[in-house]
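Deliverable D5.2: sample structural annotation.
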Amino acid sequence: MAVKPIEDIDAMDHATKIAAAPRFASDAARWAAVVRRAAGADGTFFYAVRTTGVYCRPSCGARRALRKNVRFFDSAAAAQRAGFRACKRCQPDGAGLAQRHAAIVAHACRLIDQAETMPDLAQLAAAASMSRFHFHRLFARHMGMTPKAYVTAQRARRARDQLQRSGSVTDAIYESGFGSNGRFYAGSAAALGMTPGAYRGGGDGARIRFAIGECTLGSILVASTDKGICAILLGDDAAALLRDLEDRFPKAQLIGGEPGFEKLVAQVAGLMEAPAQGLDLPLDLRGTAFQHRVWQALRRIRPGSTLSYGELARRLGMPASARAVAGAVAANPAAVAIPCHRVVRRDGSPSGYRWGVTRKRALLEREARMR
């Protein structure tokens, strides 16, 4: 596979600057960012020190100047026109390190997503002009998974798409980038949660146990494969929850009322009463690599805390992709176990919850009390 090296990466794109600028509109906010060396402020403004004649990024690790000697500029060009020269330490006239790293990882993901033949670690590292060791560490830190895991997830996504369209399981396996039937079948359970033939048939032959119960938030449906919980659904109508599960797995063998499974429902119902405690049970959730990355980030939000969609996107190293992140949050199939209720609007209002804003508000209030 031919790959192109990364060149001329901008420090921060225009949309990101527009979104971040209001946070640092005043000199007081800008000075506070300089004091804490806020990397998130890089690219939105620059500061210069009169006594040294140097201008820097807000995150620069140089010795802090006195406030009376500091001036702020909206761009590096403005600082240069005022007679200041670029700091050799933080290099404010080039792309910031954090932004370059995020762009390198984003470029690698695009190479993987668009490649007909999946690249290996050596090819990805070469495209980033990095050693395999440093690229592997950088990718894992930003994505929460190794390059190999991301490639495997993308192959699985392609396999899912091909299995739904192709007339042959074998054709779908090869078209999705797997070199042999054996390699795919060895990991098909992890990739699909069932055999390829069953997935292609809408879950035909797959065994999914489920039960419906009641909790203080209304009706609750819990479904599980042999690997783990595949759905936790909330609502006001038990019949509607069952239809939702049937739509997800139209040809699966749904098994309800199995002895002992109600205990799992009771355990999940207890999570609704004390969401801050978390759920110590295996999950078997199907989604794209991007969705899984967002869901992993959701599980890292501390109970009792909230993030806006924009803040979550910045945490993931994709400040301009808040809408895509919001879509992945909305696709979460496991209420509370994946705590998407901890993501709110920029103003803090609890909106945009697929199981109802009232339930979202109740969950946040319960976490706040427990904390």
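Annotation notes: Residues 202 and 250 are 6 Å apart (CA to CA). The longest strand covers residues 207-215.
The annotation will be released with the project's public dataset once the embargo ends.
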